[in-house]
Amino acid sequence: MTMVMELRESFTSSPAGERRLLERAVAGRYRIAALISRGGMGAIYRAWETGLERPVAIKLLAPARARDPDERGRFRREARILASLAHRNVIPVLGTGETGDAVWFAMPYHTVTLADRIRAGKRLPPDVVRDLLIGLADALAYSHERGVTHRDLKAENILLDEEGHPVLCDFGVAILASSDHSRAEIVKGYGTPEYMAPEQLLGTPECDGRQDLYALGVLGFRMLTGRFPFEGNAEQIRAAHVTRDVPAVAAHAADVPPDLAAALDRCLMRNAQDRWSGAATLREALRARTARPSGVVTRLVRRLLSRSLPQAAALL
């Protein structure tokens, strides 16, 4: 039995062996074209759905992880969560399957991510950022209403459709409010340090959808300023999010409309109670351009600006 297991692992551990495994699992439904990306949890392949004659992306759990019941269960939950969400800004599941170590699901194929648009410190125009944030806030409001918290919102997990609308994907570490297993996952601290809210980093059991609003604020900050609020190694970034206030958007991008800067500053408050009460409220404020600095944010902006722009600070 040990020799059989070793042979199976050697067959599937190489990229070529993994691809052959997937090709056998989806034969007759999809034709595998090329590898799109590979990460710690698995890989994504571009494929062609033969029956409907359309391109798709297939997410494959790494075969070694597919042998772990917890990892396999998490992957299944991601597929079920996506299947339960029907929103224009959330990636849908087109099909799923399991054949031995091949555990996969298919999604619409998109060629561009938001990360592709903002690499190398590129800033996006405020009006473009506002539209992207509105779409994402709408997707989060819809998800949160159904008890789903994403927990890993970042530029790499946002696809752009042909019209430039954002499509939220990769719900691999998402949690369900109704799930005891999901609540147990909170303390594990999954996520990407640059985008993680203080309570998420600390594994606070009371974490809710406001951690996604914090991540959305980080994303908006990055799109408008060309940088993350905090930079350094992973440990330095984690410590900064927990112990320091995020710099005001206006301190790094003075040309951003005040209401847009204020909306993001509120997303990025260290205390979850000081953030927007929900994604729907944030969405409406972005649409109506009504966000104003709160007392806490105003004091923070005043303190930052007063170091170099005394006249501007006096106007707040």
Could you please describe the fold and organization of this structure?
Strands 1-2-3-5-4 form a five-stranded antiparallel β-sheet, with helices on both faces. It has a three-stranded antiparallel β-sheet with strand order 6-8-9. A hairpin with a 3-residue loop joins strand 1 and strand 2. The chain has 316 residues and is α+β, with helices and mostly antiparallel strands. The protein folds into two domains: 107 residues, Phosphorylase Kinase, domain 1 (2-Layer Sandwich), CATH 3.30.200; 203 residues, Orthogonal Bundle (Transferase(Phosphotransferase), domain 1), CATH 1.10.510.10. It contains 14 helices and ten strands. The protein is globular and about 55 Å long.
Task: Please supply descriptive tags for the structure shown above.
316 residues; 2 domains; disordered N terminus; Transferase(Phosphotransferase), domain 1; five-stranded antiparallel β-sheet; three-stranded antiparallel β-sheet; alpha+beta
